[in-house]
Amino acid sequence: MKKCPKCGFENTEDSLFCENCGTKLDQPKITQKRVDHTSNSQDKSHQKVIMILSAVIVILVALILFFLGARSGHSTTSSNHRQVRLTAKKQKHTDPNKMQANSMNQKEKIAAVIYYASANNIRNWEKFTLYSQHGAIAQQGLGGNDEHRYYKQGSNPIEVTISGLGKGGAEFFTTDGNNVYLYCMAGVPMEGDDTGDATIEHFSHPQVSTTWSDIAKFVNNHHAGKQVHDLANNMQVTQAK
Fold it and tell me: What is the pLDDT of residue 28?
């Protein structure tokens, strides 16, 4: 019931004016309640929007971090692969069995010449396998006062024979800087026998002319560096008398 503030008459709840005196009756504060309700609804909506935006931001940040981490991992893996390739490449270039023309010692050069001559089937040169099995003897100089008769090119001849078998001895080579000249004087008379001058003249020209660079490259291309090193370690170098 609505009580009239002026006359105190009890009016019905929906009355706008007092039925007794006509005084305007106060209306309930429904509007305020609606406003308050609307305000609460807006606050809750704002909270939901903020929560949704926060969740979206968290998800985006997580995705960004994930992709950055995956990319970083891929970069690290690629870097590791590159490092492995560089290490393998370095090991390849530092292969102890790889022949280098400018760093071979005397025995290695002699062994490389023997391999080169054998692999190229140069006439009358003994097979490298025999040298590998029995060892080699390398003699500096051919002996005698006129050894220069037996070669037209190069100098400082080195004669090679198979250790313990007595084979070879007619095989030798001379050098001239980077140049190498291979000879074989099988059947040629030596000092004191003038009847073979024509034969000496014929055989005194090199069978093959090559270079230390080509010999080293040939050995490396045939992956024979270890064989050459092994023969060099099983070689005796002497001086001609």
Answer: 63
